Amino acid sequence: MTAQGPPLDGIRVVDLTSYIAGAYAAMQLADMGADVVKVESPEGDSFRELPGFFGWNRGKRSISVDLKTPEGREIVERLAARGDVVMENMRPGVADRLGVGWERLAALNPRLVYCSVTAFGSTGPGVERPGFDPIFQALGGVMTLQGFGGPPQYLRTAPTDYYTAALATQAIVAALFARERTGRGQRVETSLLRGVLALQSGVAVDYPGKPVLIRDNPTYRLYQTGDGQWFFLAVGNQSFWVKLCKALGLEHLADDPRFGSWMLRLQNNQDPVQPLLDFFEDPAVRHHDLVHEYDHPEVGRLRMIGQPLVFTETPTRDPGPPPTLGQHTDAVLRELGYTNADIAALRARRVLGGPRP
Question: What pTM did the predictor assign?
Answer without folding.
Answer: 0.79
